Amino acid sequence: MGESAWTMFCNNSNCSKETGRTCSYGFSSILNPYSCLNHAFIISVDMLLLVVALLIIVCKLFSKKIVTNSQSQRISSLTILSTIYNGILSVVYLALGIWTIFQKLDMDHTILPMDGWLVLLFQGLSWLGLAISVSMKQLNLPCRIAIKSCSIFVFLHAVFLCISSLLEAIADNTVPIKIILDVSSFLGSILFLSCAFRGYGSNDIDPNGDFDACYAPLQGEEHDSTNETNFKFNHNITPFANAGVLSKMSFWWLNPLLHKGKEKILENKDIPTLQTSCRAKACYLKYMDQLNEQKRRKSSGSISMLSIIVYSHWKAMLMSGFFALIKVLTLSTGPLFLRAFIAVVQGKEAFKYEAYVLTLGLLIAKCLESLSERQWFFITRMVGLQLRSMLSAAIYQKQLHLSNAAKLTHSPGEIVSYVTVDAYKIGEFPYWFHQIWATSLQFCLALFLVYSSVELATFTALAAIILIVVASYPLTKLQLKYYKKIMLAQDKRLKAIAEALTNMKVLKLHAWETHFKNVVESLRKDEFKWISGILSQKGYQIVLFWSSPIIVPAVTFWTCYLLGVPLNASNVFTFLASLRIVQNPVRLIPDIVQAFIGAKVSLDRIVEFLEAPELGNRKSEQKCHDKNFDHSILIKCNEISWDFSPSSKPAIRDIDLVVKPGEKIAICGEVGSGKSTLLAAALGEVPKCNGTNADIYFLDDPFSAVDAQTATSLFNEYVMRALFAKTVLLVTHQVDFLPAFDSVLLMSGGEIVEAGTYDQLLASCKKFQALVNAHNNTVGTEMDISRSSSGRAMSSKDGIENVHVKDEPILTGGEQLIKQEEREIGDTGFKPYLQYLGHHKGFLYFTLAILFHVVFIIGQLIQSYWLAYEIQSSQVSQRELLTVFTVIGCSLSIFLLLRSFYVVLLGYGASESIFSTLLKSLFRAPMSFYDSTPVGRILSRVSTDLSTIDLEMAFKLSIAVGTTMNTYFSFIVLAVLAWPVAFVIIPMIYLTILLQRHYYASAKELMRINGTRKSSVASHLAESISGAMTIRAFGGEDRFFLKNMNLIDANASPDFYNFSANEWLIQRLEILCAIVLSSSALSMTLIPLGSSASGLIGMALSYGLSLNVFLVFSVKYQCFLSNDVVSVERLEQYMHIPSEAPEVIEANRPPHDWPCVGKVDIRNLKVLKKCQLREAVQAKEGGLNSFGKLVEFDEPMKLMNKKGSLFGQLVQEYWSRSS
């Protein structure tokens, strides 16, 4: 009975009858996809899987559980994708099984043996059952456990099918449909596995999960329906949030915005806000949850920022890794298709219409490759955006509470750099992360294919690639060193620039611009050393890795020659196609290394900042709710210090201060006497002190930067009237206001030496008298303060209204001083590129670099054509063939070196020239520019934009142009070798141009908006750093933090749409390329090409298979370049600021020995409004000679410090007017 059943199943043979093969029993026969044992094993497994799937379905159908609307779950996108894919796979299996039955009946008039078609039917039924079971919702616990266990078993089963099928395909040089299906089942098993372990609810995988349901408002944040930001979030949210699976896979949801960008210039209001999961609130809360969880687990150990990042984003990275795996597997099928097409051209068809089937399979494989790669890049970009928002929010929150000791280590310029440079570098790393293992896997699969072509010579190829990678290690190590050095040098430069920009008025007053400009230039010279090193190392790495497709084939072919391995069109071009598949990922290794090093250095810097000490012992958090409290301020402390260290010197000592509610206290004293420290102590900013405060206003010399008239007006309107019933502590150097205060504190040497009313101190304290007299002698008195008979200053209303203030009309309808940041609009064409190349012989270096690249491409084409045309020729010996091939390859390496050399010169020269021009423009800009331009706008340009110019612009420009030329040369090769394809290529190029125009109309505006919004983030951060004490004093941390997160979201929105638009464009161009490649392959199998047909089709398809890769790299680097060129536009805006009067007029230069005598001549001096200089001069009659000239001999600084110096009075008057 058993023998009869086996005879019906397998016709008493070890292999399927139709295969014509001889198979043996044992393990080897189980691996053979044509053996009966293999079929019996697969059917057994399928029957088991089918039973489990049916049980799950029956269990669900007969369950009585009622699900309410609140409990219902929407099927996730991943589940839908898995169901559709596995459903299609099962239908194809079933259709192939039925077709096999009919074919056997037609040819053999019997369905025996049954193994061939039975295995197909059971495969189809099992996959259909699994597709249905995984799509079911609300499964109970046993069913979920069954599905998870089944998914693991299915995955292992699919691995077995995939490996056995690939081995057989390589051994037989054929790719039947069953083998394609078996390989495709591996992808289906991964989808099934992912669904089983990630769950079925949308909250697990949907980026727009119900975040608001678990979100608790930040302290001080209210759910205000009138809030503008919330209104935008609710009514103008991104279409991606509600897009379906097909829309997300094809980026169809992006079409409305791109259409709008084509019709009009995009504005801020046109850009929808992000979905909830990508907003800064969600990212920061996720960060805090992970941070608190780690603190709970590691109460005594250090916190790992890397682990926080991994735990926060592992699901998305796993999903993107899945798409990366699909891309690698589909890409690796290319050489198999090439080998099959060559076999068809050589007349070795497996069946009649194999060419058409192969064409359809190639088209499907390339489309699947495109879809998977686009999702891979899109998801990792989203992870990077969330990571950047998380770090930016964490950095902002940290700086609000940074201790004073930490502020000495982390300057404002450095903190801005952490957000604008370091957070962006870390945000870029997820995009490159999967490239590390994907390139390795792709390389291993390529080696597997190479071994089937050149056998033992594969090990030579492997050794050559390993040597190339090992040779790059010293370069990588140097790059890591240089990156650390350049970040330190950049911090020093930014610190100096930030200080200079913040105090530009002082620099211009003292004519110190040139000195500070020289200081910044000297710091930039140190930075240039490391910029040069990084550019050079990157150039060497590019030469090394771009030479690998030249070195490896030459070494491998010579090894084949020595080992006697035959070289023919099939194995040579299969080898070259496999190598071409990995050559672009290998060429990416320098970029991956750079991204890894940059992210590591940046992460270390941010972690060091986030671990910096915070303010402690803050008393400003104590709130006073008792309106009848006896005192507003109570400070009784022996020592007050900014440092916790016992050995630290106290800033102020022996403070016993009690201020009653409503009192107005003035604090005066010399510079450095501790006045500001006393205010900080009352605010709780000083870590080592004791005290209390309530409803108080602290004013730290607010009138120092305004003229006397404005100071009087401010004092009247705000200090004495608006704050009439408030407690006020005012630090001031202007003693004119002191009579109006209830009490005056005189400080000296860190102590309060005297306290009392103005009259009491003036009558009894010599130090106070000296202070008042020095002030009166320097600038005179502008206030006539009346006093009561008791000698105390009169009330604020009476005592200050006697001051004469000239009423000036208030101008209405004037322009706002600080205007909205300008940006370029519309299509600027090649203007920014020409501006970049216009610096320091840029056109010459760029032309030479492109010329050498053209020679490199033509040399590669000649090398491939020589191999294709002569590989089958009997007139050329194998030694001669390989000698010519190797000589051409070695020559090409020289041109690669020359190309990189001129690219490095281009980058270094442009960077040096742009910075020099920018710095000169900034230091020669008038004060009106600084009055109307926030410092953050300038800092974002001299940090982020300048860093882009320094390290990226030149290489991205050359690579973008180079890969575009590679793409068009591939088109030319296909059009020449298969002329009918020209009818497909020409309209395809036309469509490519249309798509790119459609894309660039929106993409450029998105990047420009992104640049201006990035400046807003930097400006707000810089302003918050300088005003952190004020923010804390008013308890506004939460309000400012919320505003910062809104700015981060506003900056992230155009970035999200920009990289989405990149994927939108590339996906459509890849589909067009897949059509061209499939058409080319079919045309070349149908057109007779003579004796060199196999070699020429091998050459064409090796170019065609890499066409997608070339196109992706071309468009991707064009997108990168269009993003980076916005930095050129932004820098150009500040490189041509209208300058002040020239610093030196050559026609009016004094003699070289001038001055021989130091003196100041004042002739016909006229000063608008009230001028005290005339009265002061009249009081010093001895200082004037008969000609009305005042002569003082001494150094300027000594004259400034000399008591009663008229030169000092002149400078003081100039200062007050220029303010």
Write up this protein.
The chain has 1219 residues and is mainly alpha-helical. The chain is built from 42 helices and 8 strands. The strands form 2 sheets. It has a 5-stranded mixed β-sheet, sandwiched between helices. Strands 2-1-4 form a 3-stranded antiparallel β-sheet, with helices on one face. Helix 25 (708-722) links the parallel strand 5 and strand 6. Helix 18 packs across helix 23 (589-610). The protein is elongated, with a radius of gyration of 39 Å. Belongs to the ABC transporter superfamily. ABCC family. Conjugate transporter (TC 3.A.1.208) subfamily. The chain crosses the membrane at residues 41-62, 83-102, 114-133, 145-167, 179-197, 350-368, 431-450, 456-475, 542-564, 843-869, 881-902, 968-995, 1069-1087, 1093-1113. InterPro entries: AAA+_ATPase (IPR003593), ABC1_TM_dom (IPR011527), ABC1_TM_sf (IPR036640), ABC_transporter-like_ATP-bd (IPR003439), ABC_transporter_C-like (IPR050173), ABCC10-like_N (IPR056228), ABCC_6TM_D1 (IPR044746), ABCC_6TM_D2 (IPR044726).
Q: Based on DSSP secondary structure assignment, what is the total number of beta strands? A: 8
Terminal residue distance? 110 Å
As a whole number of angstroms, the C-alpha radius of gyration is 39 Å
Q: What topology, given as strand order, has the largest sheet?
A: 5-6-3-7-8
Provide a brief overview of the structure:
The chain has 1219 residues and is mainly α.
